[in-house]
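User: Quick one: structure for sequence A, then sequence B.

Assistant: Sequence A:
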Amino acid sequence: MRDPTAQQGYGHAEQQVSTVRIALIASVAALGGFLFGFDTAVINGAVGALERKFAAHAATVGLSVSSALLGAAAGAVFAGRLADRHGRTRTMMVTSLLFVVSAAGSGAAVSPWDFSAWRVLGGVAIGAASVVAPAYIAEIAPAHLRGRLGSLQQLAIVVGIFVALLGDYAIATAAGSAANPFWLGASAWRWMFWSAIPPALLYGLGALLIPESPRHLVARGRATEALAVLRGLVGPAAEAKLLTIQKTLSSERRPRLADLRGRAGLLRIVWIGIGLSAFQQLVGINVIFYYSSVLWQAVGFSERSALAVTVITGVTNIATTFVAIATVDRVGRRPLLIAGSIGMALTLGTMAAVFGAAGEDAAGNPVLTGAAGHVALLAANLYVFCFGASWGPVTWVLLGEMFENRIRALALSIAAAAQWLANFLVSATFPALKVAGLGVACGLYAAAAAASLAFVVAFIPETKGKELEEM
């Protein structure tokens, strides 16, 4: 199949330069995804130290870990309107500032309550990044590249997770423990949070250097600026592309919540986006990234070994995201989601069986003997593989492209807010579920994975190769 841009007069060299430029622009936007992943995962290595520092019980720990997710839900709701009114790149700059302030405050916290407040602020930034980055990338990417470039968001998220986990491991190892003093006498866990400040500043600087979304510029009546941006993105096809965008936007007013209403309260496509977002979290993936060091310690690993295993899991997540990037525009969105749901149901079911059959020590923690520990570890990493090659990146690709131009940012905000609320539900309840039994927790996540398969088969449309104006 011929490249659509080649059909419109591109030379090979010009097309290649344009593709590289678009990829670089998308990568800057995806820095928001990096911070999203980093900020949500950095707490992994600090959970035990926070519990000891603040003498907190399970419910308080669950609130502290998941407080950022409540902020993320709020940030996702407001980010769409902010991005529509002030632009995608300006919203990225504001998001960068929130990341900086939250990281500084979280590291300086003196109680679980002010710590939670700083994490909520960071959550607002995470929620905004989860909306703006996929919307922006979808709007600057040609249809034949959109799946791969949209996957950059998930790649950035998993790289952020990995860097956070690696940083936690390095800092805790250097200090001897996350609770021990590190540089300048501050506890190691505080430096884990402060390490987010440099990439947050870089994100803000990058947002100053990339162009505004041409679709946003057209919506704001700035067609001349939009044409200039499009010439840098699609070359000779810029004027035709501008006319297409104007045609879809010219008769439309600024989106309102009323535009999302349908017979069932919301438009069917918005409900599908909400369901897609919720299932991405209900399968329990963030339990691995928020609590895995605690989880592996609970089954007998030392703190250092548990953190090392967590880093390995982060590497697995990155590697599998490349699988999705390589296949999403060739195989399609639906097949990857279906395969991922089946794989997650099987691996989570295996973990549920292993943990359910485990004995307990005097403290009530599960004890895996013989090959059981290795089976659980293998199943956990295969589970991450299945998620990383499917639901992780494909959800963000679909959310960025499945909504029509008129409602994209607003609908994506609602869907992303649902994702963060589902994430909060899973993260806040895991400490209590861990007490009830890891087999119970994994069984619930396996059931959600099975339900996600039915959801995809029944409701998810295939968007591979379609222009946004066709949606």
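Sequence B:
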Amino acid sequence: MRESKNLEFKEQITNTFLKTVSAYANYGTGKIVFGRADNGQIVGINDPINACLNIENKINDSIKPNPNYDLSIDDKNKLVILVVNKGSNAPYFYKSKAYKRNDSATVEIDSVELSRLILESKNISFDSLISTKQDLKFDILQHDLVKKLGIKQITSDILLTLNLKKSENEYTNAGALLADQNNFPGIDIIRFGENINIMLDRQRYDNISILKEYKLAIEKYRQYYQREEIKGSKRIIIETIPEKAFREAIANALVHRTWDVNAQIKVSMFDDRIEIASPGGLPGEISEKEYLAGQISILRNPIIAGIFFRLGIIEQFGTGVQRIFNEYQNSIVKPQFSIFDNSITVKLPILQQKPIDLNENEQKLYQVLKGKELSSTELVKSIGFGKTKVLKLLNSMISAGYIMKVGKGRNTKYRLSK
């Protein structure tokens, strides 16, 4: 057993555990086991009953406000188990400081995260706060709303209804983000060459409406990942990366990112992929599994999400990830999501269509050989099938024209046919 984000071991009862109590009460239920060494070895606690009283007194005297927790004793191993529940009155302070878990360590949160924690505990979103910039115009938003909803023009009442204003002279952060000009960082797009040291093109879209940023990003995508071909009398658009997947990824980044940090959404364009990195980890208590399954129910920026929904940029909330995967149904390579505490990166690869007439096992062999030359022994190790089965698959796919033999005898290797 090892320590983790939600599990900590304490060999003895010292005040250091109180930082972790603050962290669990602030961000998510966790467990502290007293009587275990850092490596998980059981050492036990002398007089567990008095130890519980000691722990209880320390928490009640030191953590403000008092968190909700449970104490129990493992009599067999003489362990004291403290479970701290996520509270509804965050932030929870220890010595006037608030903490969070970072992997298996407990660290103090900075002022930005403290402000965010206070807002979340009061169910207030950053995009609903009053903006520091109030001289705002909405020509871009008006154009899109007129086109989509058929309104004649944006009035003060419409801005109030959309929660872009709180009163006649108080625009919200959402209003500023959707205004023609603002003070927020935007999107930084770089087209790389053979490696990251070669930048072929760079565009930065800052301090403008996030609607315009969205459109400009799509234009840049089309420049590098779409082409037109004439077939007969028809002009056909060929996509190497699905536009719908890119649209979803950019829209998700704008809607779900944290806007209280001075960082841009980074879009890195390569020959074989696009990577979109947005500031901010997962919102609320959403797990990585729930996020990838399309079960986001907590919107970090609900006002912005509402506007994007009205304009048809996003559809049902929380389904963007699944729509990205849907665009790669027939591709051998799939999108990848890297989720960290402070950022999310989406990798959209170049489409590589599956041969539709291959069965499941043949598809696996096809994928293993992509870009490689391997011997039958190497294929057995890579794919996990027996030697006889691999040879049978190889012979079948050679006959069908998908695979070629290279070399002879012991030097025989296999690769995909061109």
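The chain has a mean pLDDT of 91. Residues 231 and 237 are 10 Å apart (CA to CA).

User: Thanks, that's what I needed.
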